[in-house]
Amino acid sequence: MRAPGARNVELTDAGRRLLAHAAAIRERLVEAHRDLSAYAAEVAGVVRLGTVLSVARVVIPPLAVALRLQAPDVVLHVEESYRSDQLLERLAAGDLDLALAPIVDDVAGLEATEILRDAYVLIVPADDELATLGRPLEVADLAGRALVAKDCGIPTQRVLTAALAELDVAMDTVVRAHDADTVQGLVASGVGISVMPRLLVDATTDDIRIVPLDHLLPPRRLGLYERADGYRAPAVALAAAAIRGAALQPA
């Protein structure tokens, strides 16, 4: 029964044609999704992934979960190192399939996709006055302080050293250490303060405090490196797509 004054609504011929096309497109999309899901499930092989330790903590767990769900026959072989330059050399030589490392300079034969930005922070002893400033840190607050520095000779360390130099602050480097845990332990013991990438800091301890520096220093750019030769084995392509598609944020 139709209400008084109401009119029948009918599709025009063009509308019917458009609806038919839309239905056909939807069916093809559903079919394509099934095909891709079936393809991923059949992908097998080993993915050799080199990564710096700080990025591994953020990327590897969700990547492993994604691969288990999408391609359970793919084996992820993770190699961790502090030396990003060595990881990139091994990737270029074909010893690795993918690498996760800071983006600093262009590397011949490799291409990088930025996946994450990691802010630099100042770590200080828990009872240090800089931990309770109640305002953003100023360059003058660092003057005369003892500095505990990382010393691993990698490009990002050189970038950080140059950035600190541009702040024109006089700090006395008292210790250089390779391992991030050692640096943090020295800070906790009161030897000095340190500037580190946020992902390298263990914030679960109560003997240090983290002071933001993002208003003074640019963040560290972290990327997925691949060989630029164009070919990707199916398992490698799947892993790379999972990394690029992830919304990664520091823990």
Task: Describe the structure in your own words.
The protein is α/β, with parallel strands linked by helices. The chain folds into two domains: 104 residues, 3-Layer(aba) Sandwich (D-Maltodextrin-Binding Protein, domain 2), CATH 3.40.190; 99 residues, Periplasmic binding protein-like II (D-Maltodextrin-Binding Protein, domain 2). It is built from six helices and ten strands; from the N terminus they run αβαβαββββαβαβββα. Strands 2-1-3-10-4 form a five-stranded mixed β-sheet, with helices on both faces. A three-stranded antiparallel β-sheet has the order 8-5-9, with helices on one face. β1, α2 and β2 form a beta-alpha-beta unit. α2 packs across α6.
What is the compact description of this entry?
By secondary structure, the protein is of the alpha/beta class. The chain is built from six helices and ten strands.
Number of domains: 2
The amount of beta strand, in percent, is 25-35%
Specify the CATH class of the largest domain: Alpha Beta
- Average pLDDT, all residues: 82
Instruction: Please tell me what the overall shape is.
Output: elongated
- Reading the helices and strands in chain order gives HEHEHEEEEHEHEEEH
